[in-house]
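Encode chain A's predicted structure.
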Amino acid sequence: MRTPLPPLINALLDPARYPDPAQQVELIETHASWLLLAGDYVYKIKKPIVLPFLDYGTLAQRRACCEAELGLNRRFSAQIYLEVVGITGSPENPQIGGPGTAIEFAVRMRRFAEAGRLDHLCRNGRLHAREISELAATVAEFHQRAASAPLSTRFGEPEQVLLPALENFKELPELLPGGEEKERLTRLAAWTGTEFARLTPHFAARKAAGRVRECHGDLHLGNLVLIDGQVQIFDCIEFSEDLRWIDVSSEIAFTYIDLYDQGQAGLACWLVNEWLSCSGDYDAVQVLRFYAVYRALVRAKVAALQARQANADLGQAIAYLALAERLVTPPPARLIITHGVAGCGKSRASRRLMLGDQAAATLRLRSDVERKRLFGLAPTANSQSAPGSGIYARGASDLTYQRLHALASELLAAGWSVIVDAAFLERSRRNAFRALAERLGVAFFIVAPQATPAQLRARVTGRREKGHDASEATLAVLERQLAQVEPLSADELKNLL
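Encoded structure for chain A:
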């Protein structure tokens, strides 16, 4: 039976109580808040409750949390979060923004179309790589601006990373009482303990490097919305510093497992790759799988609690358990390099491989992006380099391939498959990566798309006209490459994918 609404919320269902025109008022209730959708605006009122992780018990606490919510969310959604308003009068006869002493407070927000939320787009098959790229860039930019946790704070310390992970294994056995589920949790707990011991130096180093920041804390698809073609973040965690001051890798892991859970492993893979390409934080990959498993088990716990409250089955919770198991047992890593001149379709082919990865375990390194990063340039910046000079001189190319080799080695050792999207015109460069695969004991493949000379020239010309691409290849560069390319040997042809 539904709990009766308090008199204040009942009264605020009357459209006449609002300062702006509203034909009707829609109520959305969460475990911690009431959201009143009135005309073009939303009024969010916090419930007077105290939970282990949240304290809205007093009016002063609720006001402080409303003000914190406004300030924190205006970091990335100032056009949505407008103000904190007092509600005066009495619960039976309230007045929003009226004179006198406030009896309650609300966060006033600009309303947006719910159909634009990314969870709705995903379920309706309308979420594509384009929106995921926009999301990755938005999150990377937000993380870059967010404050870093001072070294003197507890945030991001290894023991603080382990504590919530262990809490999952204390609470889930009671929520998932089946013998099989307990055995699965025991295996996941053992993996978590082993991985934590191995990764402890990484957690400490990442905090020292400023990778623990004041993040959003709850970055699932339901807290992301597409407005006028731009992804907007909203509804961050304001009530817990421990849940908000986290490693940026833990932040992106939440969105990653949400996409994976909704059957969009390819988009999950694309998200991580686009975020890495924007941020350059490849060290995040070392701890990403640990955080992804933690996030999946948190979702399992929440789903189990909701099932218990609704007297429903535990199917969703068990599905999250299965997701965590898939994450800890990825397919064998493999190293894939591309081969070909500008315009042959290397990036398009590597994109297909990522979007088709049903394990969401493939990472791509683009020479065009990493070359620019080495020389302090944005991916789409024009270096003004002539063919064979500047950042494309022989020495610069050597540095670029050395960087790609070092990164590929680190990512493969962390258990991820890697695609190196580069021209690899010279056999010696290809042999260096083949040797890397042999040393690490991973499969080695070559992707070599083909195109006619006319197609190559048309693609290079078209890309230059459009702009906004990391590649700076011109027709002159193409002709130079065609003259220099060393074709694949008979032995290399055996590795074609």
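The first strand starts at residue 25 and ends at 29.
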